[in-house]
Amino acid sequence: MNNPQGHVLVVDDEEGIRRLLDRLLSARNYSVSLAGTLPEALEILKSKPIDVVLLDLQLGERKTGLQLLHEVRRHATTVRLPVIILTGLKLEEADEEQIRAEGAYVFYKPIDTEALLVYVDRLVHNRPAS
What DSSP string runs through 30-66? Predict the structure, then answer.
C-alpha cells in the first residue's frame, strides 16, 4: 500500500464484520489492524500508532467496547484518539451521552458504510498533528 491515509484499528468479535470493514477501509487506502478481543486491541494500541478506532460495543466473553474506551482514555498517548462505537443495541439516552462524554461517536448497526467511511475520513484528516 502506497502512502496510506491513516491507520484504523477495527475491534469486533465477529470475523465477518472485521473482514468487511478491512476491505472497505483498505479500498479507501487506509492501513488496517484487526482485533477480535479486548487484549488483542490493547496490544495493537501499545505497538502501533493508530489514527481511529472502530469499536464494537459487545465483544463477547462478557467484555464490552466501553472497557476498551475507558482504557484508551486513561493513557496520555491515546486520550484524544478518535473512537467510533459500533452497536446493534439501542442505547438508552444516558448511555449514549456517557459515550459522547468520553469523546466517542456512535454508529448503529446495520451500519451505513458510506457514512462511516466519510466520518473516518473526517476524523483522520482533521486530527491535530502529533
Answer: -EEEEESSHHHHHHHHHHS--SEEEEESB-STT-BHH
